[in-house]
Each structure stands twice: as C-alpha cells, then as structure tokens.
UniProtKB/TrEMBL annotation:
Residues 348-530 form the GH10 domain. Residues 251-288, 310-355 are annotated as: Disordered. Its EC number is 3.2.1.8. InterPro entries: AB_hydrolase_fold (IPR029058), Esterase_phb (IPR010126), GH (IPR017853), GH10 (IPR044846), GH10_dom (IPR001000). The keyword Hydrolase applies. This is Beta-xylanase. It is an enzyme of class 3 (hydrolase). It catalyses: Endohydrolysis of (1->4)-beta-D-xylosidic linkages in xylans. GO terms for biological process: xylan catabolic process. Keywords: Carbohydrate metabolism, Glycosidase, Hydrolase, Polysaccharide degradation, Signal, Xylan degradation.
Length: 530
C-alpha cells in the first residue's frame, strides 16, 4: 500500500415477531448516533451517546451498550453491536452508548468507588444516562437491559449487581464476575482475575455481588454469558465463575437444565428453566479467543433479553429463593486454534499475538488485505489470528469504487468488509481523496468539475458505509517527498482549500466517523515532508 507507514498500527483515533403496540414516528430527520452533553451526575467524565430510532415504541425498552477497551461509542455502534441498532429500528427501543474517556478507554470495574452502588466513577455516570433516557423517552422501567464486550462485559456484570432493581437482564460477551477485577492499590488491572485464577464458591461470588448493594433483598437480573475457550485476555475459567455468581444471585442450581449446540462450536447451557429467557444462560464457543461477538450472536442476545418485541413489561417478580449449591458448569469442547483478541483491557500478562500486544497499550494492530486472496486459507488464518483492524488494500480506492462517473461498485470492498466484521475485526476505510489511482474519467477533469467529482465521490462512498466503518482516511498523500510542500496534483490545482473541503464533506456524510489524514515518510524529522 505504497510504503504506508501509518498503516493501521496505531488506529485509535470494533426470531422476528410482529410489533404489538404503537410505534411513534419522531419529528427529527433520519435516526443517527447522537451525543448528549448534559445528562446529570458524571464523576468520571464519560461521554454519552444515544440512538433513538425514527419510530419509537409508545413505551420503549432501553439498552445500555458498553464498549471494549480502546473502543468508542461509534465503533461499537457501527461494528459489533450493529445488529442491536437494526433491531432498535424494527422494535422501537432506545440504545444508550456510554464512552470511556480515560487513557486506554477501559471502563472502571476495579476501584472501590465503582464497586459500590452510588459510590462514584463510571457506574454513576452510566446510571445518569439511564435516568436521562427513561425520563425523556417514556422508557418502560421493567425493560431496561445492558450488554457489553470485554471491558463492557465486565461493566455489564457490575451494573447488574449494583442496580438489580433497574436492569431486567444482561448479556455479557467475554467478561468476569462482578467484583473480580477489584484492586486496592489504584491499579487498573487485576492479573489474578484476568488469568482465570480467582476461583470462589457460588455463595462467595453471590455474596460479593450482594455487598455492592448492601441491604437489597429483591430479585436479580437474568444473565446471558458468552466466552471463547481459547481466550487468553480474560481467561476462560472466568466463564464458569460468572455462571456460579449469577446462578447464586438468581437462586437456581448450577446444574444446567439443558445443554445444546445452537451453532457449530457453541455449547449452550441453561440454568433454572429451559425457556428462551432462563434466569442464566451460558454459551461457550470452542476454539475462540478474545474476539466475540461473532456474526449471528447478537440475534441470540436480542432474543434472550427480550428486545424482539414491543410488549410492555409485567410487574416486577418477587425476591428469589435461596440458592442451591451443585456442580460447576460442564466442560467445554476441546479447543482449536483461536483468532487473536480483537479488543480487551490493557495491561496484564504478555500477549501472544500482534493484535493482543497492541491492545495492551490501547492500540490496534492492523493490516491491508486483498479481496482476491480471501480464498487462501493460509492468508486468512494469519490475518484472522494476528490483526484486529482491517483495511482494503485497493478495493476502497477511487478507481475501484467509482470506475465510471456516478456509477459505484462496492462488490470487492464489501467482500473485505463482510469478512472482517464476520471475524470480529474493525474496518478502516482507505481512501476517499488521492491524486493516484484515479479512474480515467476523473483524470480528465479539472477545476470546479474535478472538485465537484471529489465531493460526489466522498458522499457516495460514505453513504454506502455510514455507521459501518468507524474510521476513514479521507485524504491520502497530499504532501511532496522532496520539498515537503503540497504535491502538485490535479486535486491541489482545484484550490488550496481542497483538503478542508474533503474533510468537511466527509464530516457531513457521516458525523460519527473518525476522520484521518494518511501519508508516508513522516517518521524522520530530517525529511522535508515530516
């Protein structure tokens, strides 16, 4: 990719039923992820984003969607949790996306303040977001849910333990039990917990969660838990410990009522009853590393949570009975080689892949791939194992996406996007405005005609991927190697403001995307371009 030293190494700038109640059309324009700047008590300076579909149920459900370390609200919105957004459009529920702002963008699930109801830090800020949404959108208080990935899954456990009277259910992808990550020395990483070495009885885990809301005697949320057997970031034993905790809190046996395999490599166990919404459900994914959810998993989470309906809630259930101790969860299937972690808490034990190593310091590690090589198993195995950010080598460039003026072709670009997202990767778009690899029709233009063609191209490509690709290289290689000044390109000759116009066009086309400038030969201060 033309000596692309920026590459992606530090890309931190991843059953349908009919509606049964009235959906109310909002007067605003098409729904989009929107930031809310004033929402109440926010001791740790979180950002709040909200998604309100165009048609909101008269008494909508509310989902709190919590991102992974190094993640953002927009990345989760357009990546792992896109199926939740699609379901919100169909069933009219609201989604709140908290966004961590501290270095590494992990959520606080470790400090004493965060592990006590009303104690401060991130949980308090998130609950302010919940209260804001409930009061503003007439949310059904019996249908408030939480779901998260990695750091967000840990927060899912914490929120459900601290606010059991608020959340009806949770779905946690690759988490740890509530309270497991606690530290007392101010550190943000608990290696014993992450390594799967914090082993307790079900009663001990339950008591730890109950201590977060002292004096509470009511029922606890239903909980769905997902984990890969080859997870080395938040080790697989945490899955069994979570099951211990939530079966105890829900007062049901640790012996599963049923065990099945809804998809290849999945082992699903249900506790308490065999309904589609049991008190506790665990899904173990054979051979998978720290890279959930995979394609199709969110649909199961939607069903478990009860988001695939607009039916209002029933009165709250009575307190749960005392738990019954019994054997630990069944052993998982024999693991096979796992893909690399796509996201997770920073720090901890040494990483085993390039992607995991980058994540330790709050970065992604990415690569450019070619659609023509997606049939090569060696190629895709390495890409899947080592990298957690993908960009198209050439398939999203101008000549590939708009070979004829006004006629867009995303066939090969979509192949790369689909492969990446199906394997739990984020996608970085490259590139929208570049002097090179222009199709012949664009090379023949100049002046205002070329400027307008550039604008139209940016709008066309970003409209196709709006909400799907969280990062874009808008302008590529606009500076000259030898002089360090602007490159004498046809785009430069349309006027000195062409770069600004390109970025303003991209911002208007997808307000949630992070916009980047890309170049090469910029890592040596003696070079003119640097």
């Amino acid at each position: 990719m033309r000596r692309r030293i920026v590459a992606l190494l530090a890309a931190v700038l991843m059953p349908v039923v009919a509606a049964t109640t009235l959906l109310v059309t909002q007067p605003a324009a098409a729904a989009s992820l929107t930031r809310v700047t004033s929402f109440g008590n926010n001791p740790s300076n979180l950002n709040m984003y909200i998604y309100v579909p165009d048609r909101v149920a008269a008494r909508p459900a509310l989902l709190v969607a919590v991102h992974y370390c190094t993640g953002t609200a927009s990345a989760l919105f357009g990546g792992y949790f896109r199926d939740y957004v699609t379901a919100a459009d169909q069933y009219g529920f609201i989604i709140v996306f908290p966004e961590a702002t501290r270095s590494g963008q992990c959520f606080d699930v470790y400090s004493p303040q965060a592990l006590r109801r009303g104690g401060g830090s991130d949980p308090v800020g998130i609950m302010s977001m919940v209260d804001y949404a409930k009061s503003r959108y007439n949310v059904d208080p019996g249908r408030v849910y939480v779901s998260g990935v990695s750091s967000g899954a840990m927060m899912t456990n914490v929120l459900a333990a601290e606010y059991p009277d608020v959340f009806a259910a949770g779905s946690a992808f690759m988490g740890v039990p509530a309270g497991c990550f606690a530290t007392t020395d101010g550190s943000t990483w608990n290696s014993q917990c992450s390594g799967g070495q914090s082993i307790k009885s079900a009663q001990q885990w339950g008591d730890l969660a109950r201590s977060m809301y002292s004096g509470y005697g009511g029922s606890y949320p239903r909980m769905q838990l997902w984990h890969g057997t080859n997870d080395t970031t938040l080790a697989y034993p945490n899955f069994g410990e979570e099951i211990k905790q939530w079966t105890n809190l829900n007062g049901v046996s640790q012996t599963p009522v049923s065990t099945d395999s809804p998809s290849s490599g999945w082992t699903r166990t249900r506790y308490g009853n065999n309904s589609t919404q049991p008190p506790v459900e665990g899904v173990s994914v054979s051979g998978q590393g720290h890279s959930l959810p995979l394609n199709g998993m969110i649909a199961y989470a939607i069903n478990f949570l009860g988001l695939n309906s607009t039916t209002q809630s029933s009165p709250s259930p009575s307190p749960s009975p005392s738990p019954t101790p019994s054997p630990t969860p069944p052993n998982s299937p024999s693991p096979s080689p796992s893909p690399s972690p796509s996201s997770g808490p920073t720090g901890g034990p040494p990483a085993t892949t390039l992607g995991a190593a980058a994540a330790r310091s709050g970065r992604y590690f990415g690569t450019a791939i070619s659609a023509s090589k997606l049939g090569d198993s060696n190629y895709t195995t390495i890409a899947n194992r080592e990298f957690n950010m993908i960009t198209a080598e050439n398939e999203m460039k101008i000549d590939a996406t708009e070979p004829n003026q006004g006629q867009f072709n995303f066939t090969n670009a979509d192949r790369i996007y689909n492969w990446a997202t199906q394997n739990g990767k984020q996608v970085r778009g490259h590139t929208l405005a570049w002097y090179s690899q222009q199709p012949g029709w664009m090379q023949s233009l100049s002046g205002s005609a070329l400027r307008q063609a550039m604008i139209n191209h940016i709008n066309g490509v970003m409209a196709h991927y709006k909400g799907k690709i969280p990062y874009w290289d808008v302008v590529n290689e606009a500076f000259d190697d030898s002089t360090g000044g602007r490159r004498d390109s046809n785009l430069q000759r349309t006027g000195n403001d062409w770069i600004e116009v390109a970025f303003r066009t991209a911002r208007a086309a997808d307000p949630a995307a992070k916009l980047c400038y890309n170049d090469y030969n910029i890592d040596n201060w003696t070079w003119a371009k640097t």
